[in-house]
């Protein structure tokens, strides 16, 4: 019985280790960063912590609050700007969105994201977005990477509660 438990544990850790390596490895063509070498970049794994988008006077712009790993407390000047929203011709209950995020961290470093895929379901307030990290400033200067988010809009307060994860690649200096 102990042998079986040890073998199962070894398999689980082996599989977990392989999948983590392929996720983090910039040379893995599936993560969109095939032109980067793992040894040439610093890799930051992003995770949203109590991230929220709050309404502004402009219905297409939200300010961001909360925390995200490696950035800390998000500066209130951070914004999400929806650049387009159209009804999905194949599913009238879904909107396709494009947006830009300018997220400023506690130390003033920033990251800029653009959507590659955004879906919003007005009936439920649920949305999913895939983002590309397109640039950064400060310690994220020259950043590339990706981020996936899901969110739930509270139709009463118009606050969007966000969860997400991703990776940032910054060339080592």
Summarize the structure.
The protein is mainly β. It has one helix at residues 2-24, and strands at residues 41-55, 61-68, 72-73, 79-88, 91-104, 110-121, 126-137, 144-154, 159-171.
Structure in words:
There is one protein chain. The chain is mainly beta and 173 residues long. The chain has 1 helix and 9 strands, in the order H-E-E-E-E-E-E-E-E-E. The protein has one helix spanning 2-24; strands spanning 41-55, 61-68, 72-73, 79-88, 91-104, 110-121, 126-137, 144-154, 159-171. It has an 8-stranded antiparallel β-barrel. The radius of gyration is 18 Å and the shape is globular. It starts with a helix and ends with a strand. Mean pLDDT is 83; it is low at 1-31.
Adjacency order of strands in the biggest sheet: 1-2-4-5-6-7-8-9
Tally the helices: what do you get? 1
E-strand count? 9
Name the beta content range: over 45%
Radius of gyration: 18 Å
User: Mind summarizing the main beta sheet?
Assistant: 8 strands, antiparallel, barrel
Shape descriptor reads: globular
Secondary-structure class:
mainly beta
Average pLDDT level: 83
State the end-to-end distance: 51 Å
Uncertain runs: 1-31
H and E order: HEEEEEEEEE
**Relative helix content:** 10-25%
Secondary-structure blueprint:
Layout lengths: L1 H23 L16 E15 L5 E8 L3 E2 L5 E10 L2 E14 L5 E12 L4 E12 L6 E11 L4 E13 L2
Antiparallel strand pairs: 1-2, 1-9, 2-3, 2-4, 4-5, 5-6, 6-7, 7-8, 8-9
């Amino acid at each position: 019985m102990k042998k079986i438990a040890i073998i199962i544990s070894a398999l689980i850790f082996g599989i977990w280790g392989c999948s983590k390596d392929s996720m983090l490895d910039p040379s893995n063509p599936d993560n969109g960063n095939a032109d980067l070498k793992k040894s040439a970049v610093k890799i930051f794994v992003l995770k949203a912590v109590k991230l929220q988008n709050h309404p502004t006077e402009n219905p297409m712009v939200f300010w961001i609050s909360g925390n995200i790993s490696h950035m800390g407390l998000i500066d209130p000047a951070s914004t999400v700007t929806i650049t387009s929203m159209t009804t999905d011709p194949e599913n009238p209950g879904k909107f396709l969105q494009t947006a830009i995020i300018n997220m400023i961290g506690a130390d003033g470093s920033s990251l800029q994201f653009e959507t590659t895929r955004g879906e919003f379901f007005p009936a439920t307030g649920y949305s999913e977005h895939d983002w590309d990290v397109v640039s950064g400033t400060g310690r994220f200067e020259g950043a590339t990477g990706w981020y996936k988010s899901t969110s739930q809009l509270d139709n009463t307060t118009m606050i969007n509660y966000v969860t997400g994860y991703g990776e940032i690649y910054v060339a080592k200096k």
